Amino acid sequence: MEQLLENLIEECQQYVEKGEVASYIPELAKVDKNQLGICVISTTGKVYRAGDYLNSFTIQSVVKTIILLQALIDNGEEFVKERIGVEATGKPFDAINMRAGNLESQHLNPMVNMGAIAMCSLIKGRSEEEKFEKLLNLTRKLACNDSIEVNQEVYLSEKRTGNKNRALAYLLKSYGLIEGDVDAVLDTYFKACSISINCEDLACIGYCFASHGKPPRSDERIFKSEYATYVNAILTTCGMYDGSGEFAINVGIPAKSGVGGGIMGVVPTRMGIGIFSPGLDDKGNSYAGIRVLERLSKEMFLSIF
User: In this structure, which of 40, 48, 213, 259 has its CB flanked by the most CB atoms within 10 Å?
Assistant: First the structure.
């Protein structure tokens, strides 16, 4: 397996130049796009790595998967489904999904910015600090890494420049779709997107969803099996932004990308996958990362279809 991963990294290195880093977040614009790494954790608990798998990057929109999971843990499936829709928007991740001049809960999706901001307000806690700590601790638990922290430079960069997310949040507030102080909810969201991880952390998170709640080499169940079913289904239809349909055809697994260049792949009952390459395509997905996943899926017959 490790030789296969090394071969894929070598084959796909040519694609790192084709993507562009997320320049709308100033700190992300500084990242060297000539990076490509992968980690795979199989259901036997074996870990396989290649390339720049230890390089740190911010989780960005991959955290939407964890925000959704925390909302499910805190409130249950029916409560969350009443407040956040599950249908793909077919629009970019930062778009406003209004219909006939109205905004309703079913117009939201957990894997786009409006839905994720709304979900942050569903996390239970006595303060926004407590809510974020709960989310950070869940991330650490899923990644089997207690040292995971927030990248303060990226967080402050996002907070300074996240005006479109502010507009989305205030629009949600005006339609009664989020509770509490808007700026406090946004602060939780900005911090969540700025959590710093590596490919092995991502692969471990993906493994937990592949095993329906159990981390590698453990019989502990972190969350209910049915929550994995819920999350994996949404990842399959919406996890790769408005490129999810093409990704389903070419790769065929539940996955979530982030503009930091990470992709978390979930192969139910088989493996978790973490990939990093910061150059993005026009949908906001890692250009070289998708090429690696396409080849890996074909080599190992990973598609769930």
Answer: 40
